[in-house]
Design goal:
Layout (H helix, E strand, L loop, with lengths): L2 E6 L4 E4 L2 E3 L1 H18 L3 E4 L11 H11 L4 E8 L5 H14 L4 E6 L9 H4 L11 H15 L5 E2 L12 E2 L12 E5 L2 H10 L2 E4 L2 E2 L7 H18 L8 E9 L3 H7 L7 E5 L2 E5 L2 E4 L1 H9 L2 H5 L2 E6 L5 H14 L23
C-alpha cells in the first residue's frame, strides 16, 4: 500500500434529535474535509455515486470544486454507474475536471451497484437492455466513452459551417492528454477484473465480491487482483496499472472513537446482491497497533497500491479529519504509505499501448 484516501458515500438526511444534514451541507463538508486531508498528505478523496438516493449523484461539480481548493490530493469517483451516463458528455466533464486539477482525476466507473429503484437508468432514457441488470448498456456506454477520451473523431464535420468547417471526423472538446491512463473500472468479480485488464484500465476492486466459497474476502480479492494483472500483461499493455481496495478501518484513540466503533471488528459477511451470493469485507476497529498487525495480514491490502477508507461522512468534518489523521500518523506508515508531498499521483500514470 503506497497511498491511501477516503471513500465517501455522501449520505445526507435526518440525523436524529431534530438535526438534518442537507445535500448542500454534505457537499460543502466534503470540500472542507478534502482540503484538510490535502494538508495532511492524504493521497485521494473519492466519492460513491448513486441515483435516486440521498447521496452524491452528480460528482463532477464537487470534484472540480475540490480540485480548485487543493493542490496535491487526487480527486475521483468509486464509482460512476455507466448505465446512467451520456458517454460523450461524461467525457467532456471528465476532461474539464482533469484539466482543472492538473491531472489529478481518478475516474472510477462500472456497471453500477444495486439501486433503490427498478431499472432507474431507463428513466434516464437508456432503454433496450437485454440484460436484467443493464450490463450491456454499461459496456456500450463505456466503449464510446473511452473512444471519446482517447480523442477519436466521432462527429462528421460540416464543410459549410461558419465555425471552421472542414472534412472528416471531429473529436469532442475539451480533450485532456493522459486522461485515458486515469480511468478505473470497478469490478465485483474475477471476470470483470480480467476484462478491465484486457481493456487497459486501472482496477477499483469492489467493497464486495460476487463469490462465496468459504474463503476469506481478502484472499478472494487478492486472487481477483492477480487475475487482473495477468490479463493486463497478456493483452500487451505497457506500464503498471494501479489497483485500489476499500476497507472500513477505524483507529480507536479516544473515548469518542470507542463509543462509535468499539467492538466493530465483525469478520466477513455473506449476503445476496442482485440475486448472487456475495462476500463482504470485514470492519477493522481497534488500537493503531492492532490495526497495523491485522492489515499487514490482509492479502488484498498488501497487493493494492491504494487503500480507500470508507468514512462516516455524517459525523462531520472535524471527526473525520481526526479519524484520517490518526490513520496517517499511527497506521499508514507501517503499511508503506507515501504522503502526497513525497509522491505525485501524476508521476505514476500507466502507459496505454
Amino acid at each position: 500500500m503506497q497511498r491511501f484516501g477516503t471513500l465517501s458515500f455522501g449520505h445526507y438526511g435526518p440525523l436524529g434529535g431534530g438535526r438534518e444534514l442537507t445535500a448542500g451541507d454534505s457537499m460543502l463538508q466534503a470540500i472542507d474535509l478534502a482540503q484538510g486531508m490535502d494538508e495532511l498528505g492524504v493521497n485521494g478523496a473519492y466519492f460513491r455515486v448513486h441515483h435516486f438516493a440521498r447521496q452524491q449523484a452528480s460528482p463532477m461539480p464537487l470534484l472540480a470544486a475540490i480540485a480548485a481548493r487543493t493542490s496535491r490530493i487526487e480527486v475521483g469517483t468509486g464509482v460512476i454507474d455507466m448505465r446512467y451516463e451520456n458517454p460523450l458528455y461524461l467525457a467532456e466533464e471528465a476532461a474539464a475536471v482533469d484539466l482543472i486539477s492538473d491531472g489529478r482525476l481518478a475516474l472510477g466507473v462500472s456497471r453500477g451497484s444495486p439501486e433503490s429503484v427498478v431499472r432507474g437508468y431507463e428513466t434516464f432514457g437508456y432503454t433496450g437492455s437485454t440484460d436484467p441488470r443493464g450490463a450491456d448498456i454499461a459496456r456500450e456506454h463505456f466503449d464510446l466513452f473511452l473512444r471519446a477520451v482517447e480523442g477519436q473523431g466521432l462527429a462528421e464535420r460540416d464543410p459549410h459551417s461558419p465555425f471552421g468547417g472542414g472534412a472528416g471526423l471531429q473529436r469532442i472538446e475539451p480533450n485532456s492528454p493522459g486522461l485515458r491512463s486515469r480511468i478505473w473500472w470497478g469490478a465485483g468479480n474475477r471476470d470483470s477484473a480480467e476484462w478491465a485488464g484486457r481493456m487497459g484500465v486501472n482496477l477499483m476492486s469492489s467493497t464486495l465480491l460476487t463469490s462465496a466459497d468459504g474463503r476469506p474476502f481478502d484472499i478472494l480479492q487478492a486472487e481477483q487482483i492477480d487475475a487482473f494483472r495477468a490479463a493486463w500483461r497478456e493483452a500487451g499493455h505497457a506500464g503498471t496499472p494501479r489497483v485500489s481496495v476499500s476497507r472500513s478501518i477505524f483507529p480507536i484513540t479516544t473515548a469518542e472513537d470507542a463509543m462509535y466503533f468499539g467492538g466493530r471488528d465483525d469478520g466477513d459477511q455473506i449476503g445476496i446482491i442482485d440475486g448472487i451470493r456475495s462476500t463482504f469485507g470485514k470492519t477493522y476497529a481497534g488500537t493503531p497497533d492492532e490495526l497495523v498487525e491485522q492489515l499487514q495480514h490482509d492479502a488484498a491490502v498488501r497487493e493494492a497500491d491504494t487503500l480507500m477508507l470508507t468514512i462516516p461522512s455524517q459525523l462531520g468534518v472535524e471527526f473525520n479529519l481526526r479519524l484520517v489523521e490518526s490513520f496517517a500518523k499511527y497506521v499508514a506508515p507501517s503499511l508503506g504509505w507515501t504522503p502526497n508531498w513525497e509522491g505525485d499521483v501524476r508521476d505514476d500514470a500507466v502507459a496505454i499501448k
